[in-house]
Design goal:
This protein is of the alpha/beta class. It has helices spanning 13-26, 47-60, 74-84, 105-108, 165-174, 191-197, 218-224, and strands spanning 2-10, 32-41, 65-67, 89-94, 97-99, 116-121, 136-143, 146-154, 161-164, 201-205, 214-216, 227-232, 235-240. Strand 1 (2-10), helix 1 and strand 2 form a beta-alpha-beta unit. The longest helix has 14 residues, at 13-26.
């Protein structure tokens, strides 16, 4: 598969180094990487940390285009990287995930069908029920407290995975940069985007030895720094205790 790597990051050299090392071992060699687009937000860390990150990335990807905005913006970072992509697929990454086993074109490409626009790398944050092959949310509808119907919504997110570039760029164009990019893919926060995504599905890519093929190291790092993430009305922000 021809892919462009789209990576969003903040100033955390040690975290990024672990992520890149694991993807270099288990992911990057199994794809034809044409371009690399990176956004490093000026959040946490220092300018020196940022420079070390750039040097690390350029060591692995001399062709990388790296954006360093004046102020942090998670949604703007996602949108910018996706809009730069040129290959048929995007390998979307965040700076704080570890890969645990080989993620290959052979495993991922067959999961893309006419209505599957993302292949998500299975991880514990999905709270997988052990049955579903696609990312969904089951809803129970009630009237006067009495259940009368059930429905299933297709769910998407910004954890690492592969996207069809044409779909990702349409999504990017609909994003409201005042909102969290993942939260606005859900009901109520961005109606235009939600209506678009209803037509498509997100397939899971499972591990061979266990379902989870990647794991989040960012939450633990933030907790150790005394930093908490808050979400309200589709917006997200981080505060130091």
């Amino acid at each position: 598969m021809d892919v462009d790597v789209c990576l969003v990051s903040v100033r955390r050299f040690g975290v990024l180094k672990r992520t890149v090392k694991s993807f270099q071992r288990f992911v990057f060699p199994h794809f034809n990487i044409a371009n690399v687009f990176v956004n490093i937000d000026p959040f946490l860390g220092s300018a020196a940390d940022e420079q070390r990150m750039i040097e690390l990335l350029k060591t692995h990807f001399p062709q990388a285009t790296i954006r360093r905005p004046d102020r942090p913006g998670f949604c703007e970072a996602v949108r910018w990287t996706w809009q730069q992509a040129q290959s048929p697929y995007i390998l979307h990454m965040e700076d704080d995930w570890l890969a645990h086993e080989a993620i290959t074109s052979r495993k991922a490409e067959p999961l893309f069908t006419e209505d599957v626009i993302k292949v998500a790398f299975m991880n514990a944050s999905f709270s997988w029920n052990g049955r579903d092959r696609f990312s969904v949310k089951r809803r129970r509808h009630k009237f006067l407290g009495i259940p009368y119907a059930r429905s299933v919504e297709n769910r998407f997110g910004t954890s690492p995975g592969l996207w069809r570039t044409d779909a990702a760029q349409k999504i990017a164009a609909m994003m409201n940069t005042d909102l969290d990019p993942e939260k606005q893919m859900k009901r109520h926060h961005n109606a235009q985007l939600f209506d678009f995504l209803k037509r498509y599905r997100c397939a899971y890519l499972f591990g061979q030895n266990r379902p989870e093929i990647i794991s989040d190291i960012g939450r633990k790092w933030l907790a150790e720094q005394g930093i908490r993430k808050f979400v309200k009305d589709g917006r997200s922000w981080w505060e130091t205790a």
